[in-house]
Design brief:
11 helices, 296 residues, alpha/beta, binds adenosine monophosphate, globular
């Protein structure tokens, strides 16, 4: 695996790698913030299947943290990350500094258009977060110029916004979404899970089991009742505090009133487990032509 710390190095390494392969190489790109786990690795494996060159970036983007302490506490495990990436034969690791990504400083003036998708759920609880995400993904795409971008379903609203941004800005890249990778108890893998107390980790599987259970009650219980029941269930767990449980239209991300009027329905949630904020989602109803998703 080659490691590039600067844009110049990255471009040189890409050129070398494509020459070595003696063909025009398609590039699959996986942007991450590090503290890699098997969820990230699944994105890389999908990219490897579909591309000649796979590039993973690790960059803890300061502009998407609305909470300074979350940025400070964010786990950084670069050495272990590099070993993991190497172990699955990732071609290139891009590990830039803040200055390398934002050489002209951070321009607060540029605002990204997300068609209103940014106002719901995470947007309501993390002001400024999605502008930061748009900024960094746009900039990384500019630097890496991949053919295909791989993102996880774990961050449902994030990939939805990026999908909008790609179309809106006519960025020449294809987006592929990889289903959520979970641990044996159903907890969605996340870099933040390492900060969970053993006790809270033991209870966190209730988040997914509750979302999944909703499938059975879509015919019999109203959207509002289902949301309220899930909120009550999470609130009842000692040291857990839900921020929201929203059953939303999968395209507009707007909360829905009933299931019948929508083809694509997702339930999303954010729950504090102690001082760790966990997010999760589950698709309750999917149209047959969901072409963004990579098949498992
Ligand atoms: P992060 O490092 O948290 O910014 O995540 C980098 C990418 O990995 C994002 O596209 C995430 O949605 C994706 N990702 C993180 N956790 C998972 C998971 N458990 N399953 C699938 N994708 C994931």
């Amino acid at each position: 695996m080659q490691i590039a710390n600067t844009v110049e190095e990255l471009h040189r390494v890409i050129l070398e790698t494509s020459k070595r392969d003696k063909k025009v190489s398609s590039i699959g790109f996986i942007p991450t913030m590090g503290a890699l786990h098997h969820g990230h690795l699944q994105l890389i494996k999908k990219a490897q299947k579909e591309n000649e060159i796979t590039i993973c970036s690790i960059f803890v983007n300061p502009t998407q943290f609305n909470d300074e302490s979350d940025l400070i506490k964010y786990p950084r495990t670069e050495k272990e990350d590099a070993l993991l990436l190497e172990s699955i034969n990732t071609d290139i690791l891009f590990l830039p500094t803040v200055v390398e990504v934002y050489p002209n400083g951070i321009n607060e003036e540029i605002k990204f258009e997300f068609g209103g998708l940014e106002n719901e759920m995470e947007g309501a609880f993390r002001p400024g977060h999605f502008q930061g995400v748009g900024q960094v993904v746009n900039r990384l795409l500019e630097i890496v110029q991949p053919d295909t971008l791989y993102m996880g379903q774990k961050d449902f609203q994030q990939f939805s916004l990026i999908n909008y941004m790609i179309k809106d800005r006519k960025i020449p890249v294809r987006l592929r979404v990889v289903p959520i990778v979970r641990d044996e108890n159903g907890l969605a893998l996340s870099s933040r899970n390492v900060r969970l107390t053993p006790d809270n980790k033991g209870k966190a599987h209730i988040i997914y089991s509750t979302l999944k259970e909703m499938e059975q009650f879509m015919e019999s219980i109203s959207v509002h009742e289902l949301q309220n029941m899930a909120m009550a269930k999470f609130s009842a767990i000692d040291d857990f505090k839900p921020e929201y449980v929203t059953i939303a239209d999968g395209y507009s991300l707007k909360p829905i009133e009933n299931f019948q009027d929508h083809y694509y329905v997702v339930v999303c949630t954010a729950v504090w487990a102690g001082d760790v904020r966990l997010i999760d989602n589950h698709i309750l109803k999917a149209p047959s032509d969901l072409d963004l998703f990579v098949k498992n």
